[in-house]
Specification:
The complex is a heterotrimer of chains A (254), B (331) and C (305). Chain A is an alpha/beta fold and 254 residues long. Helix content of chain A is 35%, strand content 24%. Chain A contains 9 helices and 10 strands. Chain A is globular. In chain C, strands 1-2 form a two-stranded antiparallel ribbon. The interface between B and C is large, with 55 and 56 residues.
């Protein structure tokens, strides 16, 4: 019986007086599509930051594929196969869309201490980049500078960059943020294709998408997991209902 | 669209004025032609000082090209780059004084010591960014400035005269001003070509990516510190070569060469010519030195004009390009 | 030992001076996010003002006071005319623009006062040395500097912590937009803050004038030390600037005084003689390097922006 791909144990993080992560413990088996939901300020982005390596926890450990990665810096985790998309688009605005993805491919093609040959005509980099661009449906934007693309195209590019390195674990932070209905549908199609092929941790507010795609859902409130399980179970969980619907229902201490 | 300039940040950067591309190419072409013809002009008219002046332009341009590599393409604003001019120069001067006149020894030493210093300073300074980085590079340059002032044996504050230029056996006689001019010209062109290849290579894209969005570069797996450090070292080494040339040119080296205002001059040259463009630093160096020379002939107080000019450039001209890239905040 | 105490006091005095400069720099940076290379020029102007006014009025104290006022005025004028056009720009533009101002002021001073430099003689009472502990004589004037600067530091602390203006300054440092949204006249606030920084720098220059020659370019060297202080103390933090300034002042003074002798113990006379003066000036940079390795954000980093 294989270990879960991602094992989070007792992960805690405080910022001054604010508890952003409170002893989070969670196992995610390989291939699972796992969604994390919760009201605003619940600490979801902090969780991604902790898993990606940008934020150092005060307590707890993170294990990836059996190894303890708690102390590993961001770029090392990427090399292990953990990719992440950003809630607020974080791209290379002065490069073309294709360049953006090619940079991600390049990172995983050995070291970059190559000083002479033109990297933009290097098929080893361009071919996988074009493939990733096609996968998210951005072919017509490939040669366009990123700061000229629309918000929806930015969000798609975010995913393409994360996918370019052929990761084993994908951390998606609200990929559909700010998208219109058509773009959202496109994004759902992409996510559906990825499901099962890659292990995914998805943070999203769009409940329809979450309940349609997720194998399991974790609910985070004030940094603490209040529920974790299959979508149907989570939907029925009284603690979850109270967290989302407030004291109006149930009253008292729930 | 012209091939070499197209792949540089240059054409990508000029958002509004795509039309800048044509004038820029024209200006570059004209400048290079002028530079190539200077010795002929000097020889014909007997105005040797013109050749001497432009030799200095070539050497400073080499320094500016090296600074542009880290500043324009790498986004690392180093306010201590003149230190490498000094280190390269002192390598030549000190070796010459100790009896080692061979350029085959002096110049590699100049480059190597500069690279080492850049390695040390870079390893420490690149742990910071933004304003801290600027201040720290400034401080380290000033440190080496004070160290050289304290070196009494090599002239200290008064400087060190270099009686014989670097000897290269029968290969080339640097005492011949025209040969020296063309050597500097050739080295400058070679440096620009080197930078051109560098910035489009995997290494160059990594550097430019780090400038564009360091956080994302880390997230996709680049150990950006490593690449920035190597870039910093390359720039330092290149500027060390410029220092060796400068020492030969003036037959003299002094700590004043490393004063932080000289580092400021280099930054001005890069910015004037256009950050992150291949020939920009050459244009900038020529413009700045011509401006400086012209103003000092015009008035006894040239900085009264030069100072405000720099301020105006900062406010109206290049802020636009940098600001465009980094999302300028309106205060 | 007595020599050591004297050097320590000199170190503290230098530290106080650096604090005045660093406080102004860090205030301006913390609130307006502006790197000001011309800060040293304001220090230089303060010294020239003091020397000039003292010569006109015949009184040292009046000269210094007038210099303070003139520096405040000059700072505010500079802010309105030039500095405010740089707000919101990236730091490279600040560097370029204020570098231009630095060159301009050096030339302006040369135009108005000539290239020779000036001196500011002290009134006779301050020329004496006073016995502060048995056996240790210390110049009165240097004590005056230390005490005066401490007084200014205290005033600054009170002003920033307890007055309405100070509250605005602190608020502006952590959230510029909010303060603006509250209806405060941001423009005026910035002008006042910059003027305050200029006054501090000018005061430092005026106080230092009798000890060093008043000359063109005197601001540059001390400015770099002030930068080192800010890096060590943490940008935006006045408390950090105070602590770091004392540390830097002490280390630099003691380094210069004792390092050459210490080197003589380990190296040959020739080597020590050659390296001594060179290395002694390096001590603060080595400190800065150490801070960068172990605590790159400084000793007392202010709230990050």
């Amino acid at each position: 019986m294989a270990d879960p791909l991602l094992q989070i144990e007792g992960l805690s993080k405080r910022f001054g007086g604010v508890v952003a992560a409170d002893a989070i413990t969670l196992d995610i088996p390989a291939g699972e599509f796992h969604a994390v939901i919760g009201p605003n300020g619940a600490g979801k982005t902090t969780l991604i930051g902790l898993l990606a390596g940008e934020i150092a926890p005060q307590e707890g450990t993170v294990r990836f594929d059996g190894s303890d990665i708690t102390g590993l810096p961001v770029h090392r985790r990427s090399m292990l196969g953990i990719a992440r998309s950003f809630q607020i688009t974080s791209l290379f605005p002065d490069f073309t869309a294709l360049d953006n993805v090619a940079l991600a491919v390049q990172a995983h093609c050995g070291h970059s201490f190559r000083f002479w040959r033109d990297a933009r005509h290097d098929e080893e980099l361009r071919k996988p980049a074009r493939a990733a661009i096609e996968r998210v449906g951005l072919v017509q934007c490939a040669g366009v500078r990123v700061d000229r693309l629309s918000h929806g195209e930015h969000r798609q590019l975010e995913i393409a960059i994360a996918l370019a390195a052929k990761p084993r674990l994908l951390l998606l932070d609200e990929p559909m943020a700010g998208m219109g209905p058509e773009e959202s549908a496109q994004m759902v199609r992409i996510l559906r294709q990825l499901k099962g092929n890659i292990t995914i941790l998805l943070i999203e507010h769009d409940m329809e998408t979450v309940f349609a795609l997720a194998d399991r859902i974790t609910v985070l409130v004030y940094g603490r997991i209040i529920a974790c399980g299959h979508p149907a179970a989570v939907r029925a969980d009284p603690a979850v209902r109270q967290a989302y619907l407030g004291e109006k229902h149930g009253g008292g201490h729930g | 669209m012209t091939a070499p300039l197209d792949t540089s940040l240059d054409s990508a950067l000029k958002a509004a004025p795509e039309s800048w591309l044509a004038p820029r190419t024209v200006v570059t072409g004209m400048l290079l032609t002028v530079l190539a013809l200077v010795p002929a002009y000097a020889g014909l008219t007997g105005r040797i000082f013109v050749m001497i002046f432009f030799t200095r332009v070539l050497i400073q341009a080499l320094g500016a090209v090296s600074l542009n590599l880290i500043m324009g393409y790498g986004g690392m604003v180093s306010f201590g780059h003149a230190a490498y001019l000094g280190i390269g120069g002192y390598a030549v001067g000190i070796l010459a004084k100790e009896g080692i006149a061979s350029g085959f020894v002096q110049w590699p030493v100049a480059i190597a010591v500069s690279a080492l210093f850049a390695l040390g300073v870079g390893a420490l300074s690149l742990r910071t960014r933004g304003v801290y980085f600027i201040m720290i590079t400034l401080a380290f340059a000033q440190m080496i400035y004070y160290v050289t002032i304290g070196l009494d044996r090599y002239g200290g504050d008064d400087g060190l005269t270099i009686y014989r230029r670097s000897q290269f056996g029968g290969l080339i006689d640097l005492e011949n001003k025209m040969l020296f001019y063309y050597l500097c010209f050739a080295l400058l062109i070679a440096a620009v070509y080197l930078v051109a290849r560098l910035i489009n290579s995997r290494f160059g894209l990594a550097i430019r990516g780090a400038r564009s969005n360091d956080r994302r570069m880390l997230a996709i797996g680049y150990p950006t510190f490593r690449y920035k450090l190597v870039c910093f070292v390359i720039a330092g080494a290149l500027c060390g070569l410029a220092g060796a040339l400068l020492a030969n040119h003036t037959n003299f080296i002094s700590p004043a060469l490393m004063h932080w205002t000289r580092s400021g001059d280099l930054i001005v040259m890069v910015v004037l010519g256009g950050l992150g463009s291949l020939f920009g630093p050459v244009i900038g160096a020529a413009t700045f030195l011509l401006l400086e020379e012209g103003l000092s002939r015009l008035t006894e107080y040239p900085d009264l004009i030069l100072g405000p000019v720099l301020l105006l450039v900062a406010v109206y001209v290049n802020g636009g390009i940098e600001g465009l890239l980094e999302g300028r905040r309106r205060g | 030992m007595l020599y050591f105490i004297e050097q320590c006091l000199n170190g503290v005095q230098l530290g106080m001076l650096l604090f005045l400069l660093a406080a102004g720099l860090t205030l301006v940076f913390g609130i307006m996010d502006l790197v000001n290379l011309a800060h040293g020029s304001l220090y230089m102007l303060g010294a020239y003002f003091a020397a000039t006014f003292a010569a006109w009025t015949g009184s040292f104290v009046v000269g210094v006071v007038l210099a303070l006022v003139a520096s405040l005025a000059a700072g505010m004028a500079l802010e309105v005319v030039a500095i405010r056009r740089l707000y919101g720009r990236n730091h490279l533009d600040h560097v370029l623009g204020t570098f231009g101002l630095l060159l301009f002021f050096n030339e302006l001073v040369r135009l108005i006062w000539g290239p020779a430099g000036m001196s500011l003689p002290l009134p006779p009472q301050m020329l004496a040395a006073v016995q502060i502990i048995p056996g240790v004589y210390y110049p009165v004037y240097r004590l005056v500097i230390i005490l005066a600067t401490l007084a200014v530091a205290l005033l600054l602390y009170v002003a920033v912590m307890r007055t309405r203006l100070g509250m605005l300054i602190r608020a502006g440092a952590s959230n510029r937009e909010m303060v603006g949204a509250l209806g405060v006249n941001i423009k005026l606030l910035y002008t006042l803050v910059f003027g305050l920084g200029a006054a501090l720098a000018g005061f430092a220059g005026a106080m230092q004038a009798p000890i060093l020659t008043v000359q063109i370019g005197m601001g540059e060297n001390i400015l770099i030390l002030a930068f080192v202080v800010i890096v060590i103390g943490g940008i935006g933090s006045i408390r950090g600037a105070f602590v770091a300034a004392i540390i830097v002042g002490l280390i630099d003074t003691i380094g210069r005084a004792f390092l050459p002798d210490m080197l003589h113990l380990v190296l040959s006379t020739n080597a020590a003689h050659t390296l001594g003066p060179a290395l002694s000036s390096m001590s603060i940079y080595m400190l800065m390097a150490a801070i960068l390795v172990f605590r790159p954000e400084g000793l007392f980093p202010a709230a990050s922006r």
